[in-house]
Amino acid sequence: MKRFLITVSLAATGLSCAASPADSTAHGIDEVVVTGTRNSTDIRHLPMTVSVIGRDKLTEKQRNNVLPTLSEQVPGLFVTARSMAGYAVSDGAAGNISMRGLGSSAGRLLVLIDGHPQYQGIFGHSISDSYQTLMTEQVEVLRGPASVLYGSNAMGGVVNIVTRKMTADGTKTDINVGAGSYGTFQGELTNRIRKGKFYSILAGQYSRTDNHRRRMDFEQYGGYMKLGYDMSANWTAYADADITHFNASYPGAVQTPMYDARQWVTRGVVSAAVENRYDRTSGAISAYYNFGRHKINDGHKVDKEPKKNYFRSDDAMMGISLYQSVRLFHGNRITVGADLQHIYGKAWNKVIATGEDLAPIGDESENDIAVYADFRQDITTWLTVDAGIRADHHSQTGTEWIPQGGLVFRTTRNGELKAMVGKGYRNPTIREMYFWRPANSDLRPERMMNYELSWKQRLMDGALRYGVNVFYINGDNLIQNVMTDNGPKFINTGTIENSGIEAELSWNIDSHWTLNNNYSLLHMHNKVIASPEFKGFIGGGYTGGRWKANAGLQYIRGLYTETGTAETKENFCLLDLTVSYEACRSITLWARGENLLAQKYEINRGYPMPRATFMGGLHVRL
Fold first, then answer.
1. For residues 509 and 535, what is the distance between their CA atoms, to the nearest angstrom?
2. What is the rounded distance in angstroms from the CA atom of residue 171 to the CA atom of residue 173?
3. What three-state secondary structure class fits 590?
4. pTM: predicted TM-score of the whole model, two decimal places
5. Which residues, in sequence order, are CB contacts of 296 under 8 Å at separation 6+?
6. Which tens digits make up the pLDDT trace of 405-426?
């Protein structure tokens, strides 16, 4: 079947079968990011630690979600999983993104798409199946609090997905299909057009799998659209929309199997922005609407009656963001901005037999308005000072002040020593304040301080890069479910004290070979599920003629899957390999194997992961 598909594509399109030239790597170009400062900035002048994963790295292993690659490439970041494909939601769900012991499932790590926050309005957690590779140009991961710029939920860090843009006139179409173990299929179609000042991106994807356990099937489809117009050399505007729907089954933990447990989830976001860029100033105003529709059957144990009701919920987050950055004189940059958010959530039960909607469990909304300023100044050619402040007013919890400060010492021509101190915080979610019995409307924001020292250097004209950083986190007011005389109740009583070290190295050895590795050690005063004490990754790539190969070895030690009196830890080592062959300039064949050592392990307690799995497919470029 694969040979037939290739033959049809060649005949129908007249594709050339000459091998395309190998991509060249410009070692001397420094990375420019937007996440740490809102405006495009040379990463060498920022005091915070930012990892950048470009599209080449995100696509080299033919994954349709960005999170597995981030888990490998970013020190200190770990993503939970329970199956070959699909993270899902509710009981037994995976896709928690943790950074230094702070996780997105508790709303302590923020995911952004083009700077706009993405999380479930009622529960405050990320929806990890939404973060698709097909719409992503690069991902910028800020390790450590970013609450000065992004407010609540950014206390542990930020994952910012920067969407794609067509820069050169013409039309490009990509088709990528693959199939493999456990009836897994993935397909993507992307079309990009630019004509003069106008550009567009239209993409769609479909995937499905039976996964490795019964009653664990997963199906997902969705699309992305972006329309942009460059009004002048200084002004540009765009509007985009991203919609994802998935249907998932979950079998429960192996110790307590579940039946009829199903989820039907739709997530979407639409946004529009107008940006300006001049020599001395740049800024933007944008609006976004992030929404979700959820229908969940929580299932039943084998000796229990089936559920009579579906759980239903709708949520939405609407916001307006504006900022302007200006350079008043040489080496200076001042950014001021404001954010306005409205967060809404409604939950109720629907009778399965009749379709009747029962009385709402809750129907609540919150408003948040904030202003912030960030000041950066090059004192000398080797010293930069940065300071920021945010005033955030929440309709339920009041006003919170968030300071941040840092220094950058460019002690050598190609190296920087950075010192950073910053506050992170998280407002309580609608669920914690209003829904179900533990709710407590008197909750206050969670708070923490992060202290960090880092060193980064580029050698051999940028072909060799390495970095190391140490950090210390101390926080209080964490929201916990505590048993009181009146039953369970959410109370600001928890603390956090974590410290650790992170290191990374990349080496473009020559035109054929690359090497990259990273390591992180985490010491937790209070043990946390889904945050490994040690994570190490070493990866290598080879490009020669028509062939490319990428291999990675990840070692995880001290991953807590259960804490307390029944403490459980996991240690495991995962090997993967992806090989691709450029059959002609427009068609590439690829094959991928994961967990090639056939390790037996769990990331979520009671959900054993699959042994070795394989995928193969083709990528067509028109």
1. 24
2. 7
3. strand
4. 0.92
5. 89, 90, 262, 263, 264, 310, 311, 312
6. 999 999 888 999 999 999 999 9
